[in-house]
Each structure stands twice: as C-alpha cells, then as structure tokens.
Amino acid sequence: MGKHQRFIEKLIHGIFLLLGLVTVGCVLLITVYLILSGIPAIRQIGLLDFLLGDTWESTAKEPSFGILPFILTSVYGTAGAILFGVPVGFFTAVYLAKLAPAKVKSVVESAVSLLAGIPSVVYGLVGMLVLVPGIRALFHVPDGASLLAAMIVLSVMILPSIIKVSVTALEAVPKEYEDASLALGATPIETYFKVSAPAAKSGVAAAVVLGVGRAIGEAMAVMMVSGNVPNMPALFQSVRFLTTAVASEMAYSGGLQRQALFSIALVLFLFIMLINAALNFFLKRDKEG
Predict the structure, then answer these.
(1) What's the CA dihedral at 140, 147, 117, 219 to 10 degrees?
(2) Given Cys at both, which of 45, 64, 87, 210 links 50, Cβ 3.0 to 4.6 Å?
C-alpha cells in the first residue's frame, strides 16, 4: 500500500509538473513568435521612427508607421480606467468583505459575477448607443466617440477583477488583527482601512494588475467607443489604442504593414510584461522589508 501510494503521488507530481511546463512553453512560444514576427519591421522602419513617430499612414503611397499616438493613448486610457475604476472597486470590495449584510453581499457578488461574464462587444454596443451620445450632448462636442468614452467603458470592465480579488484578499486577513485594533479603541471603519486594507495590500495590488491587464488588452469594446482614428490622444478626440490598431488592420494587411502590426503586438506584450515585473518587484521588496 505504501509503494502504491508513493507511485500515485509521484504520478500526480509529474502531471502537475508537465502542466506547469506546458504553460511556460506556451508563453515562450508566444514570446519567440512575436519577436521573430515583429523585429523585421522595426529594423526596416527604424526603432526611433517606429516608437516615436507621430503619424500612422499604413496604406498611403509613402506609408508612415509611427505608433507614438497608439502608445500614449493606451497609457492614458489605461491610467484613466484605473483612476476611475480602482477607487470604486476597492471601496466596493471593502463594503462587501466587511460591512455588507449577507443578503446584500450575495446579490452584489452575483451582479459582479454577471458583470464579469458580459462579452466585451456588449460593453462596446452599450457604450456606443448610450455613452457616446451622452458625452456628445453633455460636453457639446462634435463626436462623443473619444478617449473619455474609452476610459469610462474600460473602468467598468475592470471592476469585476478588482472587486473579486480584493474581496478574497480582505477576507483572508486574520480576524485577530481586527480584534486587536478594536480592542485598542479604533472604530470599525478605521480598522478596515488602517489595518485590514494594509494587511491585504498584496492581494489588492494583484487585483489592480489584473485590471491593468484587462484594460491594456481590450480591443473590441474600445474600438466601438473610441472612434478608432490614429490621432494624438486628447480627452474629447477620437483615438486608436495599440490593440485596436492591430485588430482594425490585420484582416487586409500585407507586407511591411502586416509586419508592423506584429511589431505593435510585440510592444503591447512587452508593456504587460513590464507591468507584471514591476508589481512582482515591489511586492517582493515589501515582503522583505
């Protein structure tokens, strides 16, 4: 029986190891493919001209492949989504984890799960039919399809990731921490924000990174509400993100244009890797401190 049990344990360990290696292998394959597909265009166009050029005219007689407007738009759009979405998501998570009655918590958590399951095209459709005309009427601008509309849609789309992960992190804080704070005279609200939230900061940070990844990687909803025009970013102007640049032109692209789209995908991939690396660095530093 002992030998049989050890064999089963080794078999399960081997299966888990294989699955982990498959995951790592997939990431490596994607990385190598993007590098091999994206580098030729960067070499031909020039790294500085590609990254810092402010004009994208891929189908012109003399094409120009500058992606600075896409980079800035993605950075501003993601930052705006985080600015709008993180406070709402965090305060909602604190309420659900610490203050909400059981029935209210059940209803809100079901709504959050439903929000996570809505396809991105539905977000884009609602934004195009409701949000875009609303911005046009409210701010008296020629077209409501703009960077602001994209920020608002993205901020709603990242809420489920932030809320669910933050709730899990807050509920994992040992109750002894809160009891000690209350015993020292702190109010429940002070305890939640000065004890529970700092204790769960690694989980909350992970939630924010998931939100950032969702915001940077979204294409369809953003394409429907942002106007999808390669302008330099402005709040009430139609813009194009890195993701929508690839999605909107890949179907009919060829030659250098297609290679340049792969280069955009490579830049997007590197952005996400840098964000994850930065998070891991800061979290590791906090734990060591």
Answers:
(1) 130
(2) 45
Closest by CA to 70, choosing from 46, 99, 50, is 50
How far, in Å, CA of 148 to CA of 244, rounded? 16
Query: Can you say how many angstroms the Cα of residue 277 is from the centroid of all Cα atoms in its chain?
Result: 15
User: Among the residues of the chain, which ranges form H helices?
Assistant: 2-45, 47-52, 68-94, 102-117, 120-126, 132-139, 147-157, 159-171, 175-183, 188-191, 197-199, 201-217, 220-226, 242-249, 256-288
What mean pLDDT do residues 90-106 have? 93
Q: How far is CA 28 from the centre of its chain?
A: 21
Distances (CA, A) of 109 to 103, 115, 158, 213: 10, 10, 15, 22
pLDDT at 157: 94
pLDDT tens digits for range 173-224: 999 999 999 998 989 899 999 999 999 988 888 888 888 888 888 888 999 9
**Residues 203, 240 contacting (CB under 8 angstroms):** no
